[in-house]
Design goal:
Elements (H helix, E strand, L loop, with lengths): L2 H5 L10 H12 L20 H16 L18 H12 L6 H8 L3 H12 L12 H13 L10 H4 L19 H13 L11 H6 L4 H11 L5
The chain binds heme C (2 copies).
One heme C binds next to α3, α4 and α5.
Subcellular location: Periplasm
Keywords: Electron transport, Heme, Iron, Metal-binding, Periplasm, Signal, Transport
InterPro entries: Cyt_c-like_dom (IPR009056), Cyt_c-like_dom_sf (IPR036909), Cytochrome_c4-like (IPR024167), Cytochrome_c_Oxidase_Subunit (IPR050597)
Length: 232
């Protein structure tokens, strides 16, 4: 067993700490309530139909997100293996124009609640894509240490506490999968968490904003080098 693996063996306990840490973070951040007039992120749908999701993906999403949601463009997020709740909430947030992105707001405008659930069911069942290349081994190693252990002296929380040591997230807690996520996209979204307020209505609107607060640019780059190549 590799030394790092043994050192972080306690994390193999399946996300036992995620719920209490999320609860503490939520209290700390006084999350915004649902927007006035009801929560536009609450979707109404019946049993998701992944086969219909596959058809929609092939005709609408694949040109940007890649076949099966395995994007090969570092700026476009991978959707393969993403937890379904996260995909549904993000699509609803684009449609409600709560999450910025002219491209995705246009795409989501043409999707029904049922389409969103079908797409989420399809993408969550696809195998995550291969690792991205990282040329800087030292940077990646720093990212791995932060990901697994955090840096308590600086108040940096280990990513693995919520995302899991495998980075595959936790659907019922609203935690996204980030394993082998596209690197340029991941860095952009971490900057967004640092620089823009959250939108209400998702399960954990403040979690990532609190997590990134003590982290500097070097930390974010190291973390992205690791998370974009987790399963190599
Ligand atoms: C023209 C290119 C394009 C098309 C077509 C497209 N997307 Fe996207 N999508 C993007 C880009 C770029 C982003 C990143 C947006 C941002 O955060 O700035 C994105 C983000 C997303 C996200 C958020 C992912 C995350 O990890 O937070 C989801 C979910 C998503 N797209 C789903 C879809 C689905 C489903 C379709 C098809 C119905 C689709 N997209 C079609 C370009 C596209
Ligand atoms: C307290 C729990 C928690 C911790 C700790 C945590 N995350 Fe997250 N993370 C979440 C939640 C919840 C989401 C999705 C919610 C959202 O969109 O704000 C998320 C989303 C993300 C995303 C966006 C995924 C996407 O597809 O857009 C990235 C990247 C990410 N986290 C990276 C990290 C990194 C790196 C760390 C460690 C420095 C970390 N997270 C620590 C809870 C956590």
């Amino acid at each position: 067993m590799k030394r790092t693996a043994r050192r972080f063996l306690w994390l193999a306990a399946p996300l036992a700490l995620a719920a209490p840490v999320l609860a503490a973070v939520a209290q700390n951040g006084s999350p915004p309530g649902a927007p006035p007039g009801g929560n536009p992120l609450e979707l109404k749908y019946s049993t998701p139909n992944a086969a219909h999701g596959a058809q929609l993906s092939a005709s609408v999403c694949q040109s940007c997100h890649g076949p099966g949601g395995v994007s090969t463009n570092p700026e476009v997020p991978r959707l393969a293996g993403q937890v379904p709740g996260y995909v549904r909430f993000q699509l609803a947030a684009f449609r409600a124009k709560l999450r910025p992105s002219p491209v995705m707001q246009r795409v989501a405008a043409s999707l029904t609640d049922q389409d969103m659930a079908d797409l989420a069911a399809y993408f969550s069942a696809q195998a995550i894509g291969p690792a991205w290349n990282t040329t800087d081994a030292a940077l990646r190693a720093r990212g791995e240490a932060l990901f697994m252990g955090g840096d308590p002296a600086r108040g940096a929380i280990a990513c693995a506490i919520c995302h899991g040591a495998s980075g595959r997230g936790e659907d019922h807690l609203g935690v996204a999968s980030i394993t082998n996520q596209s690197p340029t996209y991941a860095l952009a979204v971490l900057h967004e968490y640092k620089n823009t307020p959250s939108f209400g209505g998702i399960p954990q609107p403040e979690a990532m904003r609190i997590v990134v607060k003590p982290l500097g640019e070097d930390d974010l780059r190291a973390l992205v080098a690791y998370l974009s190549s987790m399963t190599r």
